[in-house]
Amino acid sequence: MGGSANLNIMMKAARKAGRSLAKDFREVENLQVSMKGAGDFVSRADLAAEAILKDELLGARPTYGWVAEEGGEIEGQDPTRRWIVDPLDGTTNFLHGLPHWAVSIALEHKGQIVAGVIYDAAKDELFFAEKGEGAFVNDARLRVSGRSAMIESIFATGLPFGGRADLPETLQDLARLLPACAGVRRWGSAALDMAYVAAGRYDGFWERRLNAWDMAAGVIIVKEAGGLIEPLTPGGDILSDGEVICANEAIFSKFSKVIRGA
């Protein structure tokens, strides 16, 4: 499937960074790791992947802005466009040898996400979408699931770690949701959780206290796969609030009422 020049730049960059990470992943026991904070790690592999992405993306589009997990924010000469990048979403999985992590790249134009790429290098699955052009994984079209019964549906979320303050809220979510559904999964990568909603593998996803780079690519991939996506707080903003809920259209209303406690 052909895409725009920007999308092709994004896919090339994601694959190049993914190859670098996959090489380090095979030698995970030798990684040099430093502690950033409770439950939040950064490795040389992570920083190397971000350097690759910065070189590829800003090399191709030097006037665009940039915001990324490790490297902070760069204001571009073009104030309407910026790259939103997570070089390694699922760092803790990576460092524990769990093959569930991804490179995530989004392009924002005038405050809207217009293209997104999520690359799962361990499984060689490239999820991507552009505004108005649909969503894909490798060469296959993505569509959200068609399930409409909560009791048949599987949902995903992140669980607070390291004594985070939102643990009680998440436990309340689970207490309401678990009796009503077929299961809840916690796989440790918000980007892949959203890609899996787009692929129909999960029926819905919600999480709090995320960063823009965790979600940005997933936002457009879910939308272009036919899913509904909103901030957890009605009227809010997904990327700035760091809260999101998404699902297929058939289940969204029921799911959101459970999570929001309505």
From TrEMBL:
Locate the residues binding Mg(2+): 69, 86, 88-89, 214
The record's catalysed reaction(s) read: a myo-inositol phosphate + H2O = myo-inositol + phosphate
Q: Which UniProt keywords apply?
A: Hydrolase, Magnesium, Metal-binding
Q: Name one GO biological process term.
A: phosphatidylinositol phosphate biosynthetic process
Q: What molecular function terms (GO) are annotated for this protein?
A: inositol monophosphate 1-phosphatase activity; metal ion binding
Domain of life according to the entry: Bacteria
Supply the PROSITE patterns for this chain.
IMP_1, IMP_2
Q: Which cofactors, if any, are listed as required?
A: Mg(2+)
EC class name: hydrolase
Quote the SUPFAM superfamilies the UniProt record gives.
Carbohydrate phosphatase (SSF56655)
Q: Which CDD domains match?
A: IMPase (cd01639)
Q: What is its EC number?
A: 3.1.3.25
Per the similarity annotation, which family is this? Belongs to the inositol monophosphatase superfamily.
Q: What is this protein called?
A: Inositol-1-monophosphatase
Recorded source organism is: Roseovarius faecimaris
